[in-house]
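#structure-requests
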Amino acid sequence: MNKKKQLTEEEITRQVAEAAARSKQRLEAEPRALAARYDKKSKRIVVDLSNNCTFMFPAEIGQGLSSATDSELAKVEIASGGYGLHWETLDADLTITGLLAGVFGTKKWMSELGRAGGSAISEAKAASSRANGTKGGRPRKSKIA
């Protein structure tokens, strides 16, 4: 038989006080979203933070936001006490901590973003490729003995 440990009133009071202290410390240390909006002109999500900074990112790189319309993106809400952004109609959520760390979705989503960025075609990439072609192409990997 599995008996659960019964907490005393003192233990519960102590744990609640410790949790409140951790929460207060987190509120003071980590930036939270105070306001968020979609800027249609730049196609970016703009987030005003509790540390008096503003963070912006292109909506197309946020997981669940890439195919959204301007009106859907404009319905961004602050979630989880300022620690997240939420789009109800898109069923999309992003964390402020993740966004500030450059994480715009799951590992799979980030991998797809990287793959798409690597396959992008630009005049600079084409010119570089042409220049390398005149030199005989990509250099061979040297063998280390």
